[in-house]
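Final report, closing paragraph on structural work. Over the funding period we assembled a curated collection of sequence-structure pairs, and we close with a single example.
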Amino acid sequence: MNIRRFFGKNAREALAQVKQALGDDAIIVANRSVNGGTEIMAMLETDIASNASSAPTDMGTDQSRSLLDFVNAQGQPTRQAAPQAAMSAPGVQNNTPVAEEPAANEGAIMDMLKLHSEQQEQAYQVATQTLEDKMMGMMQEMRQMRSHFETQMSAMTWQHHLQHSPAKSKVLSTLLSANFSASLSRQIAEKMPQHIDVNKAPMWAKEVISRNLHTLDDEDALLDRGGIYALVGPTGVGKTTTTAKLAARYVMKHGTQNLGLITTDSYRIGGYEQLRIYGKILGVMVHAVKDEEDLKIALNELKNKHMILVDTVGVSQRDQAVTEQLSMLSRADSPIQKLLCLNATSTGDTLTDVMRSYKKHDIAGCIVTKLDEAAAIGNVLDVLIRERMRLFYTTSGQRVPEDIEVADKPALIERVLTPHQASLPYQYLDEELPLVISSMMQTAGQEQQHV
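Its predicted structure, as stored:
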């Protein structure tokens, strides 16, 4: 586009220059007052003819008026006023020349130019927004098409692999039915050697899981070493009962004199009272703390104890209080090892969310609770393997101290890979596996973990 600038002492003079240079069909692009007069930017209508077909057609016919239209509109009130003045005084003959009113005319012209410029700007904004909306819609459709295409291609690839490797198909079906994630199941299947027979595939999978599931090697070494342990985790996971069970195991081995109990659960009704009752049964005093200063005082009073167990208030993994509580534990004068309690009945995505929220604060290990209530435990073992977290204990009931034991790796793996009646509706057919794997991998964002 060839836009030209014209300068005059006033708007009338500048318009005259536009008309002389570009003719009556010139298009006013913009105008402004400058030092010494008025500046007008204009262009020929033919310069934008090539772009007319791409402009919106529903913006009205008054968006780009020519110079002739502008001048005619400006002159029309003056031409109409003259006859009316003559008719109002027919008997009076006035030969005196009528003086021009340049200030008034110039003000009207400036108003018209301003309106014209605003209309041009509005038309440009509407056209730009329309184009952006169309582009956003096209990009969204392209993303959907790409996702669908990738899913289909992934399904075809997996179908090819599984048709040529019944052992991989067997492992995938077994792990998915046991509530392992698609990500971990796929990685285990991909690492399976080609020579593995389909009947030996489940045993090979057990060995891989056993090699990657880390558990407590020696409980006696932990109890003999002592230290300060805080049980953390979401509400309702069973931290208070588990604290009492651990306390009972320690008392059975070392007595009550060297054990200290602390609770930060001052929010839940009966939170302190529950642990106090367990402490009374064991013969151990329970210290209740409300803030960081109280915690430091309690730890100082118990500094001569061989082992101190801290029961914390339950906090949702998405609550800012997680950071506040764990930071309070980290700022204590004595080092506190944090044990994360995981509910075996929770879904895999919930457990992953919990793990990643708490793991940022130096978790030493995990305790899996409520194994007796879980129909399948692949979800919790899957999270422990993917997040490389050590499993210390498992609990399976409310009895103290009977329903807690050191994590038994062989028993857990045997249980997770043994089919049971409740899992039958969730088992996949061989022909369903390719699409299931590809869809779940798309949802999971294809996480990469090393097995």
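The longest strand covers residues 27-34. The longest helix spans residues 102-164. We thank the funder for supporting this effort.
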